């Protein structure tokens, strides 16, 4: 009998057992988050400064819930990254089933925002309430990412709670591996939304580039 469990209770140990998923030790496995980025223009910087100011204002009455995170922070980031235009397509609240091989187990969950291009998953975005540590959502995001039917291509992800942002990369072939970026935070003195947007643009370019 197949057992169904919610993605929110999946652990890294379960993913390791089911998929052989390991954390990559080679720093060059995920160079997309730290390689040289294209500079942002003044208009982009001004808008991101306003996004940070809006978030800071809302943080005076915590917690800021998922819908607020999407509206105040994620929506302008996706716009500036160009993900509302072809060849990208946006889906929200997408249902996903992840079948674990030889486990008789199906992980079921919903992705908050899914960015697609040519039927390939480009970005899995998990937005959480502002007082929810993004590290707690890593297993959930990875469970979604390894369910990508296009196993020959890497899948990129971002977990965001409005204040913190973490990027992920996962592969299924030839080895099931993942790695994460450093943690970006709006609590830091500089506006780290600049770097977040630059990485989003970088990942968008990587995933539509010829291979």
* Domain tally: 1
For the sheet with most strands, the description reads:
9 strands, mixed
Structural class computed from helices and strand pairing: alpha/beta
Question: Average pLDDT value?
Answer: 81
Could you characterize the architecture of this molecule?
The structure is a single chain. Strands 1, 2, 3, 4, 5, 6, 7, 8 and 9 form a nine-stranded mixed sheet that branches. Helix 2 (42-58) runs antiparallel to helix 3. The chain starts with a strand and ends with a helix. The protein is an alpha/beta fold. A hairpin with a 5-residue loop joins strand 7 and strand 8. It has helices spanning 12-19, 42-58, 66-80, 138-145, 193-208, and strands at 3-6, 22-23, 88-100, 105-117, 120-127, 155-160, 164-171, 177-180, 184-185. The protein has one domain. The protein has five helices and nine strands. The mean pLDDT is 81. The chain is globular.
Can you give keywords for this protein?
single chain; nine-stranded mixed β-sheet; alpha/beta; 211 residues; 28% strand; 9 strands; globular
Short description:
This protein has helices at 12-19, 42-58, 66-80, 138-145, 193-208; strands at residues 3-6, 22-23, 88-100, 105-117, 120-127, 155-160, 164-171, 177-180, 184-185. It is α/β, with parallel strands linked by helices.
